[in-house]
Structures are given as C-alpha cells and as structure tokens.
Design goal:
Length: 260
C-alpha cells in the first residue's frame, strides 16, 4: 500500500471530495483524523475507514477558528503518537454564484476569502512544527481551476483559489529544506451535490434549465465529461505518496481539460 501506517488529517472530510479522499487514503493504508463542522456526516465516513481496517478519529472543527484548529491538531498528535505525515486541506465554500462584481456584497466576498484562505492557512500553520521536527511531510491543498484562470461572475471564489496557489508555492519554498512537499490539486467542476446546487443557481438566474447549465460545463471540457470525486482523490493520493517525492510547489489540474 502506498501510505501504509501513515498518519493523515483531512479537513472537510464529511462529504463529496473530502469523503472520497478520506476513504482513498485509508484504502492505501493511512490512519486518519477526519474534521469538519458536520460531525454526523463525519461519523459515516469514519465508519467506512474503520471497515477498511484503519484508524478513524472524528474531530469537530471549523478551520477558520484558530483555537479549534489548534485543538484538532493536538488531538491528532495524541492519537497518532506524535506524528502527522499528511495534511489534506479540503474544507472550503463556494460563495456567490452568477453574480457580477458590482453586485457582490462585501460581507459575502470576505466570507469566501476567509473560509478558503484562512481555512487553508491555519491547518498548515499548526501541523508544520511537527512535520519540521520529523523532517518529513506531505501537504496537499485543494485549489481550483478558477485559481488558474479567470472565472466570470465568481470573483470571490476565484480570488480565494488564486490565494491558495500563493500559499502553496510560498510554503513549499519555506518547507522544502525539511523534506516537506506542498502541492495543490485543482479540480474543475466535480460531480457532487455542490455542483448540482451551482447548476440550479445558475439556471435560476439565467432562466435556463439545470440540464442546459450542466451541458454548458461539459461542452467547455476537452474530454466532454465531468470530474468525479474519485478523480480528485486519485490525484491527492499521488501527491500524498512517495510517487510525488520530488514534486513541490505545483498545481495539478483535474478538470477534464477545462483550463486547456
């Protein structure tokens, strides 16, 4: 197994991509601390991890609250005997959709920036001392292809994902000397309930059907198919494994060719 006996934290592990990433890492041998605000959904994913023969520890955590992040990392160190080998930052929000920049409320803009930037920064901040001490670690941030190109009508979300790239590259430069890899996996549209809510919101604003919005996304992709959560999980597994031992500060787009 690629991750046998590795100790991992996955934020936003309750649903969609986070759940797929969590079970994929477990299937490859990792023990996992799962954190999110929705602990009911976390319990369901944790049960899947345990069914695979791996440890699963559920921690309620809002990743924009430093005290909660600190406590979550402390709990991980307790249950993992002082090691943290992998951090995957999945938690995030989408914010206003189909909204021109002049119509975005400042509070809505800042909510997305805070959730997606601070929610990536704080877990990195608090796992870094452990990874430095053990002179080893893998950090994988979930960015987005809207952080690789402009995304009309999604100013706040796109801005936040560009920031994730900045965090990824800068931290990679800082931590490389300690044998810590820091990379980002950048999904495009992913087949999750969140995508369907996005399609419904766009359809409502445009006066289209949901199917028309969905098909517009598909036609924008070179491969003409929507990314699945498992596609993202496979990319995260690669970045979290020794297969990516000499890759750091990079963004891997998994988007069916939307950003080509």
């Amino acid at each position: 197994m690629k991750l046998e006996n590795r100790k991992a934290i996955v934020t936003g592990a309750a649903k969609g991509m986070g759940a797929a990433i969590t079970t994929t890492l477990a299937r490859e041998g990792a023990d996992i601390v799962l954190c999110a605000r929705d602990t009911t959904a976390l319990d369901e994913v944790a049960a899947e991890v345990r069914a695979l023969g791996r440890q699963a520890h559920v921690v309620a955590c809002d990743v924009i609250e430093e005290d909660q992040v600190r406590a979550m990392v402390t709990r991980a160190l307790e249950v993992f005997d002082g090691r943290i080998d992998i951090l995957v930052n999945v938690a995030g929000v989408t914010g206003p959709i189909e909204t021109p920049v002049q119509d975005i409320e400042v509070e809505d803009f800042m909510y997305v920036i805070t959730a997606n930037e601070r929610g990536t920064f704080l877990p990195i901040k608090h796992v870094t001392p452990t990874m430095i001490a053990q002179k080893e670690g893998k950090i994988v941030n979930i960015g987005g292809t809207s952080g690789l190109r402009g995304y009309p009508m999604r100013t706040s979300y796109s801005a936040s994902k560009w920031a994730v790239r900045g965090i990824t590259r800068t931290v990679a430069l800082e931590l490389g000397r300690y044998n810590i890899n820091v990379n980002a996996v950048c999904p495009g549209i992913v087949e999750t309930p969140r995508m369907h809510k996005l399609c419904e919101g766009k359809a409502r604003v445009r006066g289209w059907s949901v199917d028309q919005v969905y098909d517009e996304y598909v036609q924008d992709m070179a491969l003409k198919r929507v990314t699945t959560p498992q596609d993202i999980a496979n990319a995260v597994l690669f970045m979290a494994s020794d297969d990516a031992r000499n890759i750091t500060g990079q963004e891997l787009a998994v988007d069916g060719g939307w950003d080509v």
